[in-house]
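During data preparation, we tokenized the protein backbone, and the record follows.
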Amino acid sequence: MAKRKSLEDRAYEKVQREFDEYIADIKTKSPTEIVEAAYEITYKQEILCMFECEGAFNDKQSVAILKTKNALDYLYNEWLDFDGSVVDTLRDSVNLAIENQIDYFKKQEERDSR
């Protein structure tokens, strides 16, 4: 007897199917339209990746996704309305990277001055 798919697996498959359909549609667009859709493509792919992690969503959450029409679009649009900012995270990362370089160059200068 075949093992029944978990709700989480079914939710993942639904979102994967929606992403595949979205990408197929994007591929019919002009290069300019594809470039303009890059942000949406990226974040829809990030949302999809969240579903690939086993245990990321419980049964209640998975059922909600299964019941949601155009779940990937819904999640993406909610992301757009979210108060958090990727720019803040990116800014923190860039600042940390620059500080690491400053430390590196400082150590290089100290070594070179000996």
